[in-house]
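Forum > Structural Biology > Help requests

Title: Can anyone predict the 3D structure of tRNA (N6-threonylcarbamoyladenosine(37)-N6)-methyltransferase TrmO?

Hi all, first post here. I have the sequence for tRNA (N6-threonylcarbamoyladenosine(37)-N6)-methyltransferase TrmO but no way to get a structure on my laptop. I'd be grateful if someone could post the structure tokens.
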Amino acid sequence: MKIELESIGTIHTEFTEIEGMPIQPTGAKGVKGEIVIKDKYVDGLKDLEDFSHINILYLLHKVDGYMLEVKPFMDNNTHGVFATRSPKRPNRIGSSVVKIDKIEGNTVYVSNIDVLNETPLLDIKPYVPQLYEDTIDELKIGWFEANHSKAKSQKSDDRFK
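Reply #1:
Sure, ran it for you. Structure tokens for tRNA (N6-threonylcarbamoyladenosine(37)-N6)-methyltransferase TrmO below:
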């Protein structure tokens, strides 16, 4: 089945190069960005200002191809791509939870964003952790358990070009 997606806007950040940028939102604390929504989708922003955080889905547009096994930034071992947050994915879809600072017209101003400048935005969803609290009894985070603290300081390199 072929699937076609259209971007609903563009994400603007200070990160113009993949190398050296944060690999997760926790490593981008305080980093500001702007999400500019295409005019035909602006009405979809109604009531979004009532939320503090959003989950943004975007196209990892500077990544070519994919790898089914990768050596992620935060570990020295290889893992299946679906057990990582590697950008080298079959459909190149990224996601981040970011803080809404304000919304003006077609622009959502955000903080704690770890996304490359000029990234095509695919979707926005309000972040509501309470929607999951009754479904997650025992959370397991696999290999991240020993490595998740590295996300605050680890920077991107050229391994996924």
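The first strand starts at residue 9 and ends at 12. DSSP finds no helices and eight strands in the chain.
Shout if anything looks off.
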